[in-house]
Amino acid sequence: MRIIILSLFLALATLLQGQMNKIDYVEYDLDNGMHVILHQDKSTPIVAVSVMYHVGSKNENPDKTGFAHFFEHLLFEGSENIGRGEYDGYVEKAGGTLNANTSFDRTFYFEILPSNQLELGLWLESERLLHAKVEIEGVETQREVVKEERRQRVDNQPYGSILEETFKRAYREHPYKWPIIGSMAHLDAAVEDDYKQFYADFYVPNNAVLSIAGDLDIDQAKMWVEKYFGSIPAGTKEIYRPSIVEPALGGEVRDTIYDEIQLPAVIQAYRIPAQGTEDFYALSMLSTLLSQGESSRLQKELVDNQQKAMFVGNFPFNLEDPGVSMAFGICAAGVQPLDLEVEMDKVVDIVKEELISDKEFQKLKNLVEDDFISANSRVAGIAESLANYHMYYGDANLINTEIDKYLAVTKEDIQRVAKQYFTKDNRVVLHYLPKSAE
Amino acid sequence: MKNLYIVLFAILAIAFTNCTSKTTEAVTDTVSDAVKEEMPSIHAWRANVPEPAPARKIQLGSYNTFTLDNGLEVIVVENNKIPKVSYSVSLKNDPIMEGDQAGYVTMMGDLLGRGTTSKSKAEIDETIDFIGATLSTSAGGIFGRSLTKHSDKMLALMSDVLMNPTFPQEEFDKVKSQMLSGLQSEKSDPNSMASNVSSVVNYTTGHPYGEVQTEATVENAQLESCKKYYNDFFKSNNAYLTIVGDISLDDAKMKAEKYFGAWKSGDVPSMSYGMPKSPDATNVSFVNKDGAVQSVINITYPVDLQPGTQEAIAASLTNSILGGGIFLGRLMQNLREDNAFTYGARSRLSADDLVGNFNAFASVRNEVTDSSVVEFIYEMNRMMTEEVSEDDLQLAKNSATGSFARSLESPQTIARFAKNIVKYNLPADYYETYLEKLESVTVADVKACAEKFIRADKANIVIVGNKDEVAEKLVRFDADGKIDYYDAFGNVVVYDDKPMSADITGESIINKYFEALGGKAAMDKVKSISQSMKMDMMGQQATVKQMVKDRSKIAVKVEMQGMVVQDQRFDGEKVLMSGMGNNEVITEGPMINQMKEQTKIWEQVSYMDEGYAMEVKGKDKIDGEDVYKLVVTNPEGNKSTEFYSVDSGLLLKKVSLDETSGKSIMVSFSEYTETDGIMFFGKMTTEGAMPFPMVMESTGVEVNPELSDDLFKVE
Fold first, then answer.
1. Environment class of residue B160 by beta-carbon count within 10 Å: exposed (0-12), middle (13-18) or buried (19+)?
2. Which of B457, B486, B515 lies at the terminal end of a domain, its last residue?
3. How many domains does chain A have?
4. What pTM did the predictor assign?
5. Same domain, B511 and B642
6. Share of chain B above pLDDT 70, in %
7. To probe the interface with B, which of A98, A139, A156 has the most B CB atoms within 10 Å?
8. Same domain for B450 and B527?
9. Which among A17, A89, A256 has CB closest to B691?
10. Does B444 lie at the interface with A, CB-CB under 8 angstroms?
11. Residue A242 located in a structural domain
């Protein structure tokens, strides 16, 4: 009897905490198919206005890679009513900040404004969607800027090419095989019609989620949303979504990359299912077991006990199509990558062979709970999460409930996915070595 | 260092490539004129920019302070948005000079969390991870955060770590070796390199901010120094405790007393430092980074700018106009949007109670390094000489106001404000009235501020990049026309830039090499040769025997554990590759030519023949030894780069492209010893062929041995 009451209390306490952090929101579709999500939080007088377009590098034509990201740059150039170069000015003069980013799966634009400037944010985003305008000089400038971006992030950055080098070996068919930043040759070759077409194909309200969070009045916000976005015509074409199914890797792929680095590194990228699947949650828990916290398996064994790694961890990528879980280890000085790799394998082998203890399993659950509760502390992050959950899963309420999917994972699931996916035949292994010469 | 990789990985894992864009000139030539064409004038109303609604007043959250009997000053900010509480202990003292042990204070910080009188590091980690909490230690204090329901567990551990650390020798050794590995990677990170050199040139080594951790100083660090630092400075009266989150004031008082009330107070050493001298002219400092495709530019110098002053507020607006956080900053507009030299150019003007600094920075491609410096100087001069417009100033103010409001989203901001008020002795309403103070700054204030703090003509210009491609063009920016070179850690490097004397030619280098080997005549007598070597391959011993017969045939045999794993032969016409069950005969292709070259024993004997070209590329250094760099092109047009010791004349390194695999192969030779009057290498290291360097050590050379023809047979 005592035990029952105790567990009742525990359940109540958990329930209470869940409520403390619950994110309330309103969502609806405009007639043109645009999805709108509004979340009110008046604690700070700011508001985040964001639009997520369901287009990323994977929607590109293989002969025109880098367009999604290049477009992200071009769509700050101006519109019918916003002169060239004035876009940032409107936001910064209002005391706001703005930026955008592009992933394999989507492109995301946002402004964070003083809350009395909400209408300005809606106007700016609706202009971008309705009639952006790009001048030739803007194209030329942004082309060079993107090239500098590539040099800074990839070429001149130690280990900066890891993502590119891994994905081009992990995929042979699927568009994840080319880098988000794309081919500079493709960007150089692009002509006016290419831009027009890409804009017309993907920048339509029925391919976008407008997500607003912060100090707002719901009714007023709805009125303005209708005013600025309601009259934008829906796209009429079907939106291209690649249906390419990447075949199994069919054997380990190994390679060596020479980079301007001092300490060698080991990458092991295992092919895994898409985000949102049951196995993906199990693989996330596996990653927590291996990498989160100093007592995690990889860190404790390789950084602390054996001191063979400077840093080591395993991370699954959140991708809409089947992705990879990437283990990344930087060798301690004097350690060879093969040596580190063998030890990384041993750590994973133990997970495959022995079921984890109840205590360690409880630790994983506690870590997941802490992460989940900490996740939604800023309005910009809330706006993005709501848009994400709607766009990928059609369920914005996952912002409150996704934790249940993690907690549904069993110890046996973790062992099973380790056995099933973390196999040699299913991985790409790269050794990063200091560039030998010239 | 570990954090660096976590951040690095976070960036990789997100896989975004972001940024906004914009240009200033208005151009009418339109590429995609309204990409959607059917929009008629029903949208005319859209030309009106929406007016802002009345602004809501920005409310600062409240905080409370109290002091424990042991002198610990406590700041509490209650915020119930998320059921978590954080506790931060931070020391009040200024940094100390670490001298030839630079790095030990950092090590002490890491070591603090690695063992208490009752718990090992593993037990501490296990306890913290089990409740999903964070506990981190540094030289400046300890930070802990957990869900409210786990607070007591977290605090019990935090208080144990703070008061009962044991500083185990074993953990000290680990921390040291991790730091040494970390320093290794700084050698390839251009931003770390720039930051190290900037510290040295801005503050000099006589100021704690000018101390750079190097392999030597970290190697030198002593465990006793770490313990002493802890004993000197970790006192309750030398710290603030900041409590932020889901907690009431009463509860905070109770917990502070329970977990930190027993912390001992005591006398703390005091330090004082002079104000580092700002340069009185321009001074270019350069760090070479081989193979760099971009240059990192830092234009930087120390400034005397005190935090919490009206001057600091004006300075932040001045910097914002030049190149602060906003996109409309002049540096970003000029270098990125007008010139497309960079992905981003910015500046920073930081206030600090010891000494602040100015830094304008960007990463730019090699070809435009000098042009970029010109633009930096131009924009800095413009700030110094011209008044900014009211519009520019208003933009900076609006941007600062917006950023102030956004920062209030985090309850940690209020805690930081409260701490600054105590630390710098600011008026209690300093932050309440911050926006009014900001609004009161005038164009004239900005001009005065720029005159005082922006000085392109008295600055350190620190550049990390590809020396061969960019350094020469930077001489003109240095007031005395001389660039100072540094290594990655700010140590002075002297390059031998004297022009090559005309009598150093490819021929002279090769002839000297022959002499060093024992003379051409002695070499000519060698027709056959057999050299045995041993090598460690993935933990296993391998033996390699390399034979040349009559300068026309070759055989290479590799054995492991008594088994022949590779047998490669060349009979003068055909190549046989066999081993591990494979057997392949090659009759044409680049390999045949490569083999023919090898039959000469010393391929250099052909370099003076027709069809070969040699070019001396100047001097370089290999492991501190001066070398001549010689690029050799063979009749097939393949290039190799060879490095010959200036001193001994011997070949130390050869880099060439292996045509069969397309890989760049680097072979280093060392430990030359004599056999029958001729020098042979004792050690050969090959990098680039396998995922790890292959080191072969010579176990014996036979000159003109009897070799059976069977060894070379190809069939």
1. middle
2. B486
3. 2
4. 0.73
5. yes
6. 91
7. A156
8. no
9. A256
10. no
11. no
